[in-house]
Amino acid sequence: MAELSGKKILVLVNNQGVEQDELKVPAQKLRAAGAEVTVAAPESGEVKSLVGDWDLGETFPVDATISSVDDSDYDLLLLPGGTLNADSLRLDEDAQKIAKAFASSGRPVASICHGPWLLVETGLVDGKTLTSYQSVRTDVVNAGGNWVDEQVKVCPANGWTLITSRNPGDLDAFVGAIEDQLTA
């Protein structure tokens, strides 16, 4: 496991519908490696997760509201999936601004499953090669991205690095790629 002391990670989620393990596993592993992980949602309180977009999962505390965070304080942006989560988040103007700020400043973004919908919405997948949950493929291609079916894809095109994975089964490779990026 990489040593990530001093690294700060911003996780953007909706208050409801995030895929449980796509929030829980990266947050736990990155914190265990020494990173400071902030979970930001539109509203304060808690995040209600789902398992497989269907079954109720665990709840997680919200550390900050999306509108209150200063994105410049963070080294990496993490976008978990979950259909409801990603579909709601893609329309959140504050989340859109944060994603654009990370890309324009050259800081990395990591996104899994349906998480790339926010990047599709903001035009950030244009010219990028990425993976995602299979049903997001058409959206990625229509937005100018190149979709691949790989466990993890790291793309440095357009002056910023995008790390993507397909689903919870890819979490070990996904978190490993995040750690590699933050220690490079």
From TrEMBL:
Residues 7-178 form the DJ-1/PfpI domain. The keyword Nucleotidyltransferase does not apply. CDD domains: GATase1_PfpI_like. PROSITE patterns: PEPTIDASE_C56_PFPI. The keyword Transferase applies. GO terms for molecular function: transferase activity. Keywords: Glutamine amidotransferase, Transferase. It comes from the Bacteria. Transmembrane segments: none annotated. Gene3D superfamilies: 3.40.50.880. PANTHER family: DJ-1 PROTEIN (PTHR42733), PROTEINASE (PTHR42733:SF12). Belongs to the peptidase C56 family. NCBIfam families: PfpI (TIGR01382). This is Type 1 glutamine amidotransferase. It comes from Kocuria tytonicola.
